[in-house]
Task: inverse folding
């Protein structure tokens, strides 16, 4: 799970940022000032930084961050009420990777943070495999023992996501956020239905799963394939 640090002094805004980023499946640490932030950022994947902060401004902190050899490449999304072009340019030239003007929508916030994380992450493998199951992400194609699976787009997205994170358990809520998106209005039953459909495609027995396992009280995971596993 990606770790995003938020530095925002307005409590209400900070709570909104935390809520929507956590709802999108991200781990969030929220601070109200830059004091002590460098230590927290050592384990972060991205920073959402307000321009106007008490004490040290966000812009000043950003310049200091870019001089730090360990943190200079950390992706930073700058938040501000300043809409003038010259001020946006100043923020970007000071080292911000992206810029969001208040007020903003939750969907745009999440989309911009995810874009920063994607750009900063190593290239993900385009072909994923787990025993006889092979998923070609670029071609949007899945095969079981060489047989092509006739999946819907959402079935494919769910299968690819679980395969990419094989071994990790995801709750229904997390899967809705990560696969369907934060703005999806359906319920958790949608995830159950798609898992059932995928099991039918994979000929996967829920009682002795070779691939899709239900972890009671927690959610679902893709079981790493082992020799002799039942499929």
Result:
């Amino acid at each position: 799970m990606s770790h995003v640090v938020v530095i925002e002094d307005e409590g209400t805004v900070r709570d909104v940022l935390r809520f929507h980023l956590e709802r999108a499946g991200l781990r969030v640490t929220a601070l109200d000032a830059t004091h002590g932030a460098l230590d927290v950022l050592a384990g972060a994947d991205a920073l959402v930084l307000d321009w106007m902060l008490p004490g040290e401004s966000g812009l000043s902190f950003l310049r200091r961050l870019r001089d730090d050899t360990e943190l200079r490449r950390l992706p930073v999304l700058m938040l501000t009420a300043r809409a003038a072009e010259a001020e946006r340019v100043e923020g970007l030239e000071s080292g911000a990777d992206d810029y969001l003007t208040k007020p903003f929508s939750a969907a745009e916030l999440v989309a911009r943070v995810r874009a920063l994380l994607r750009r900063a992450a190593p290239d993900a493998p385009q072909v994923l495999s787990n025993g006889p199951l092979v998923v070609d992400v670029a071609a949007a194609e899945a095969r079981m023992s060489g047989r092509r699976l006739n999946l819907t787009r959402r079935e494919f997205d769910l299968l690819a996501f679980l395969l990419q994170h094989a071994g990790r358990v995801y709750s229904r809520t997390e899967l809705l956020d990560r696969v369907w998106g934060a703005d999806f209005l359906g319920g958790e039953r949608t995830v159950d239905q798609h898992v059932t459909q995928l099991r039918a495609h994979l000929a996967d027995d829920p009682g002795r799963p070779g691939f899709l396992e239900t972890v009671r009280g927690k959610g679902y995971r893709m079981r790493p394939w082992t020799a002799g596993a039942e499929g």
Notes: The longest helix spans residues 106-120. Residues 206 and 213 are 7 Å apart (CA to CA). The chain has a mean pLDDT of 87. The helical segments are 11-23, 37-41, 58-66, 85-93, 106-120, 153-164, 172-180, 189-202.
